[in-house]
Automatic annotation (TrEMBL):
The beta subunit is responsible for the synthesis of L-tryptophan from indole and L-serine. It comes from the Bacteria. This is Tryptophan synthase beta chain. Pathway: Amino-acid biosynthesis; L-tryptophan biosynthesis; L-tryptophan from chorismate: step 5/5. Its EC number is 4.2.1.20. GO terms for cellular component: cytoplasm. The modification N6-(pyridoxal phosphate)lysine is found at residue 114. It catalyses: (1S,2R)-1-C-(indol-3-yl)glycerol 3-phosphate + L-serine = D-glyceraldehyde 3-phosphate + L-tryptophan + H2O. Tetramer of two alpha and two beta chains. It is an enzyme of class 4 (lyase). Its cofactor is pyridoxal 5'-phosphate.
Length: 455
């Protein structure tokens, strides 16, 4: 097949039928998740109030592959396999010998990669007899995806959206409601967790940690309700590996292998979904590739956080996970990449980072939006604010290739379009965008609240 194609497509019959579990191939397993009260490793019974047993089993499995149920594949076929594009026009504009590819997940019903896990989570919960799902959302892509997925399996969906994003992106609310979801700004007065935050700060911009606390609180006290998480946990990253598995097949079709893979990171689902299958090939000695995470300078958990046990939410309702964290009390500035405003990084990605298998960079949002505009004007897709971080890192790599003359192959995941994020582009184009930096004193104050874990 021609290596110079603009897009590489797979037939529906070529769609992967298994998810890949990186844990099976790591040189050492990630640290266990701990009970917040006893600090003992959590067991299935500890997680049962929030998740169906099928997802709990996937969370802790050591199996290399997990079969994708046929009912999930049937919904996946609405948009999968997703296309792999060659960014010819961006390459030309940069004057680089590098070849830039992007796996485009904006073709999904929600406009992002999030349905890759929302659909199986809704399926397994419906199979377990659950009636309603609660969740948090930042930019709104996860809330949109779960509302869509819940509708496919006859479930209700209730979403708490971080207040700053709720105000910035009103059309997300309408889209979630169109799919059948119910949405609240977070912090809200509907939960004890939300009321506690509002009592301290009535004008709180919210955070993903606060929104998680609210959604978990409602799920935990209602037996017909479960909680669904859009990132961070192992089973979420597992489901997202359809992205990387498809990309491997697409590169095989044109006889190309990537030299550098870049993904944006907030909680880690898009990054893990793209990179884990390639990391499997690297660990097996079949591929020599540099894997780089790109995160916001205003919420830099990998590059400035500490690797420690911490709560996944603000109120301390969740188990303790060892991860790169800025502290569960950390309230990020209201950056436009709402999906990356999370205080911690996926424990599995944090572990991989500690093993030295991936790199990380932090990028200010004005540089990211400059990359997003450049990409839109060459490739014709307005990217969501989140993947502009990866695009900025890709452009940096491509310009280094221009200086060195190296014809590297660069791959990224364009994890969503920015059609509902145009207010952010408007702020950038009007010269009104602010680059948020994280002062050391503010970080130290948030980290002072980390739980003490001994043993």
């Amino acid at each position: 097949m021609d290596r110079n194609l603009t897009k590489v497509l797979l037939d529906e019959s070529e769609m992967p039928r298994r998810w890949y579990n990186l844990v099976a191939d790591l040189p050492s397993p990630p640290p266990p998740v701990l009970h917040p009260g006893t600090h003992a490793p959590v067991g299935p019974d500890d997680l049962a109030p929030l998740f169906p047993m099928s997802l709990i089993e996937q969370e802790v499995t050591a199996e290399r592959y997990v079969d994708i149920p046929e009912d999930v594949l049937d919904v996946y076929r609405l948009w999968r396999p997703s296309p792999l594009y060659r960014a010819h026009r961006l390459e030309k504009a940069l004057g680089t010998p590098a070849k830039i590819y992007y796996k485009y997940e904006g073709v999904s019903p929600a406009g992002s990669h999030k349905p890759n896990t929302a659909v199986p989570q809704a399926y397994y919960n419906a199979e377990a007899g659950i009636r309603r799902l609660t969740t948090e959302t930042g930019a709104g892509q996860w809330g949109t995806a779960l509302s869509f997925a819940a509708a496919q399996f006859g479930l209700e969906c209730e979403v708490w959206q971080v207040r700053s994003s709720y105000d910035q992106k009103p059309y997300r609310k309408i889209m979630i409601e169109t799919f059948g979801g119910v949405i609240h700004p977070s912090p809200s007065t509907l939960t004890a967790a939300g009321r506690a935050v509002l009592e301290k700060d009535p004008d709180s911009p919210g955070s993903l940690g606060i929104a998680i606390s609210e959604a978990v609180e409602i799920a935990a006290r209602n037996p017909d309700t479960n909680y669904a998480l859009g990132s961070v946990l192992n089973h979420v990253l597992l489901h997202q590996t359809v992205i990387g598995e498809e990309a491997l097949l697409q590169f095989a079709k044109i006889g190309v292998t990537p030299d550098v893979i870049v993904g944006c990171t907030g909680g880690g689902s898009n990054f893990g979904g793209l990179t884990f299958p390639f990391l499997r090939e690297k660990l097996a000695g079949r591929l020599d590739v540099t894997i780089r995470a790109a995160e916001p300078a205003g919420c830099p958990s990998l590059t400035r956080g500490v690797y420690a046990y911490d709560f996944g939410d603000t109120a301390g309702l969740t188990p303790l996970m060892k991860m790169h964290t800025l502290g569960h009390d950390f309230i990020p500035d209201p950056i436009h990449a709402g999906g990356l405003r999370y205080h911690g990084m996926s424990p599995l990605i944090s572990h991989v980072y500690e093993l030295g298998l991936i790199e990380a960079v932090a990028i200010p949002q004005s540089e990211c939006f400059a990359a997003g505009v450049r990409f839109a004007r060459t490739e014709g897709i307005v990217p969501a604010p989140e993947p502009t971080h990866a695009l900025a890192a890709c452009i940096d790599e491509a310009l280094r290739c221009k200086e060195s003359g190296e014809p590297k192959v660069i791959l990224t995941a364009l994890c969503g379009h920015g059609h509902l994020d145009l207010a952010a582009y408007g702020a950038y184009l009007a010269g009104e965008m602010t680059d948020h930096t994280l002062p050391a004193g503010r970080l130290d104050a948030a980290l002072a609240g980390l739980p003490t874990v001994t043993g």
